[in-house]
Amino acid sequence: MELQRLFGANVRHHRKAKGWTLEQLSDQTGISRETIGKIERGVAAPLFETAEKIAVALNVPAPVLFGANAVPGTGERARLLTEINGTLSRMNADQLDRAARMLKAFVG
């Protein structure tokens, strides 16, 4: 049951990071909005096929949704990481490369 809740929390985190609604994720996966909502709340366990569809739509490796590199902690840090992730997920390859170089120069 804990894995089910973790999977759902990670789906919600990555969906929101992309700025998507349940309806948008539903459109991208062909999975009903109601089912995705149940998965996100941890009250329904997805089939592997469903988990793969969600991972592909969110452009996230499936293991991440199951807890590898789990959702960051709560609070301001989590909010900032979610915002940054959402911004990065909307960038094209050239923009990502430039952002990575800028971040490396800034952090060292």
TrEMBL record:
Keywords: DNA-binding. Pfam families: HTH_3. This is DNA-binding XRE family transcriptional regulator. It comes from Ciceribacter lividus. InterPro entries: Cro/C1-type_HTH (IPR001387), Lambda_DNA-bd_dom_sf (IPR010982), TransReg_Diox_bact_type (IPR050807). GO terms for molecular function: DNA binding; DNA-binding transcription factor activity. SUPFAM superfamilies: lambda repressor-like DNA-binding domains. The keyword DNA-binding applies. One of its GO terms (cellular component) is cytosol. Residues 11-65 form the HTH cro/C1-type domain.
